[in-house]
Write a structure and sequence with these properties.
alpha/beta, Rossmann fold, 2 domains, three-stranded parallel β-sheet, 11 strands, 16% strand
Length: 295
């Protein structure tokens, strides 16, 4: 058996096609969806991500604003910028790119974002709504994973989903979403993490294995049940003398070996990655529709 590939580019293009229609309806009413991104400091990975967000906004015909602040920005100054965006009617959704410099409390900033404009779905109000099954928005990466499962025809109802990792960004919300009632969910969910005993024994029970633990090639072939669907959320840079820059990206799954036993698998790069920005755009469009009552 060689697993079929679930590719983020293919899935995201179908979603972008739907978003273009929704954006067209908004524009017909004189409304241009606006997404803003605030970047504090010069983290290279964050800079690349922010540029990609801006480029995608332009491709979709959305209003895009990128605010770059120096590393020395104080918490009070950043809060003032957040409040400014909360009050800006041309901005329907925005996010403050994480991580922030150590002298700024991330929770303080996240809590200051208007929940109706919380494009990342990090505000406690939005997290709570997601948990009870009445979401305003869904966090981008977990939502992207769920859409990949739905649109690639993976049945989730009644299946055992094992989530490897318990971060607030991927692991916890992923588990909360998969246990809900509805399409792309209705699963029995187990969460494992760095303190789990007999972790391989549990991952081998998974019909769907979602991995977001941040360790290169952590999941090996012997940890996967034959025929399982494997979703690799990890992005790790490892040395590679053959590569032009001396390194390459790999996931949290030993892809080359696991693909021989899985029924379907996401590669890294090219798997979950493109879905994160896609679902961020979807959140911005939904925020615009909610703000203007065009749903």
């Amino acid at each position: 058996m060689t697993a079929r590939l679930i590719l983020g580019k293919e899935v995201s293009e179908s979603i972008y096609s739907e978003l273009r229609e929704r954006i067209g309806k908004l524009k017909a009413e004189g409304i241009v969806p606006g997404l803003a991104v605030v970047l504090v400091g010069e983290d290279p990975a964050s800079q690349v991500y922010v540029r990609m967000k801006g480029k995608k906004c332009e491709e979709l015909g959305m209003h895009s604003v990128t605010i770059v602040l120096p590393e020395s920005t104080t918490e009070a100054e950043l809060l003032a910028k957040v409040n400014e965006l909360n009050a800006d009617d041309s901005i329907h959704g925005f996010l403050v790119q994480l991580p922030l410099p150590k002298h700024i409390n991330e929770d303080t900033i996240i809590n200051a974002i208007d929940p109706k404009k919380d494009a990342d779905c990090f505000h406690p109000e939005n997290v709570g709504r997601m948990l009870i099954g009445d979401p305003s928005f869904l966090p981008a990466t977990p939502a992207g994973v769920q859409q990949m499962l739905i649109r690639s025809g993976v049945e989730t109802s009644g299946k055992h989903v094992v989530v490897v990792g318990r971060s607030n960004i991927v692991g916890k919300p992923m588990a909360a979403m998969m246990v809900q009632k509805g399409k792309g969910a209705d699963s029995t969910v187990t969460v494992v993490h760095s303190r789990t005993q007999n972790l391989p024994e549990i991952t081998r029970q998974a019909d769907i294995l979602i991995v977001a633990i941040g360790k290169a090639r952590f999941i090996t072939k012997d940890m996967v049940k034959e025929g399982a669907v494997v979703i690799d959320v990890g992005t790790n840079r490892v040395p590679d003398p053959a590569a032009k820059n001396g390194s390459r990206l790999v996931g949290d799954v030993d892809f080359e070996n696991v693909k021989e036993i899985a029924s379907a698998i996401t590669p890294v790069p090219g798997g979950v990655g493109p879905m994160t920005i896609c679902m961020l755009m979807a959140n911005a469009v939904k925020a615009t529709e909610c703000a203007t009552r065009l749903r």
